[in-house]
Structures are given as C-alpha cells and as structure tokens.
Amino acid sequence: MSAAGGCLCGGVRFSVRGALRPVIACHCSQCRRWTGGFVMATEAASADLSFGAADTLTWYASSAGAERGFCGRCGSVLFWRRTTGVPTHISILAGALDPPTGLRLASHIFAADKSDFYDITDGLPQAAQWPER
Ligand SMILES: [Zn+2]
Ligand SMILES: [Zn+2]
C-alpha cells in the first residue's frame, strides 16, 4: 500500500509506503486550537514516510513530549509525532492525503474534551483519552 499527500500550497509533498492505521479523530483542546475543529489522523512508521518537498515544513513543540508539523506558508496542518525517545511512528492528518485513501474513521479519542458546538453522532467507539494499544 502506498499513499501520497501534501499541503494546500504544495510546499510540502510526501509519500508513504507500507501500512496506514485506520483514522482516529482527536478532540483534545490542543487539536481544537490547532485546526479549529478536531484532528482526523492516520499513522505510519516513520521509516515509511518520505518527502518530495519539505521546504516549508515547520514543527511546533505543542507539549513537552510532542510536536506538530504544518506548512509555514499556507498553514496546512500535516503531522503529529512524539519527541520523547526515538519516534518510531508519525501521525499524518488524513485530510492531507490524496484521495482515494482507502481509509476509514475508526474511533474518537479525548471525546470528553471536545468543544460544545458539535456532537459525535457516528456511533463509533469513543475514548476519554488515548486508545488501547
Ligand atoms: Zn503549504
Ligand atoms: Zn488531540
């Protein structure tokens, strides 16, 4: 399986070979402020990700243990990864992938932290925090 994606302006283009995790929606307060809504992300092994363009890729340390990747020119939100230890995996915002992705939304995390202007009504599993591994 392989997939490709990028930001709105084309400053960041990437491809992924290998398996992508089903999409998980995160409703935490950081994801809310970062996107204006919530994050829907897949995940890949870091070694499977390669860049065709990364001139404008910018990283923001959003907490002590994680950073978020976005395009510094067009503002597209793209990646999330841990910064503690060796980051073996990277979350990729599913909307950045070129369709068809072949992926499906599977569950919601930090559902208890969501804002009040929408409801989660798709019947998928909801977790208060991180998913079970
Ligand atoms: Zn861009
Ligand atoms: Zn989140």
Structure description:
The mean pLDDT is 95. This protein has a single domain, classed as Metal Binding Protein, Guanine Nucleotide Exchange Factor, Chain A (Beta Complex). It has 133 residues and is mostly beta strands. The strands form 2 sheets. The protein has a 7-stranded mixed beta sheet with strand order 6-7-8-9-4-3-10. A 3-stranded antiparallel beta sheet has the order 1-2-5, with no helix packed on it. It contains 1 helix and 10 strands; from the N terminus they run E-E-E-H-E-E-E-E-E-E-E. The longest helix has 7 residues, at 29-35. Bound molecules: zinc ion (ZN) (2 copies).
Please give the structural blueprint.
Elements lengths: L1 E5 L5 E6 L5 E4 L2 H7 L3 E7 L3 E6 L2 E7 L2 E6 L5 E6 L6 E5 L11 E5 L24
Parallel strand pairs: 3-10
Antiparallel strand pairs: 1-2, 2-5, 3-4, 4-9, 6-7, 7-8, 8-9
The protein binds zinc ion (2 copies).
The backbone outline, from C-alpha atoms, is: globular
Report how far the terminal alpha carbons are from each other: 22 Å
Number of helices: 1
Give the SSE string. EEEHEEEEEEE
In the CATH classification, which architecture applies? Beta Complex
**What ligands can be seen in this structure?**
zinc ion
Please count the beta strands (DSSP E, at least 2 residues each).
Answer: 10
CATH topology: Metal Binding Protein, Guanine Nucleotide Exchange Factor, Chain A
| Arithmetic mean of pLDDT | 95
Poorly predicted regions are none
Rg over C-alpha atoms, rounded to the nearest angstrom: 14 Å
CATH class: Mainly Beta
Structural class: mainly beta
**Strand arrangement, major sheet:** 6-7-8-9-4-3-10
Number of domains: 1
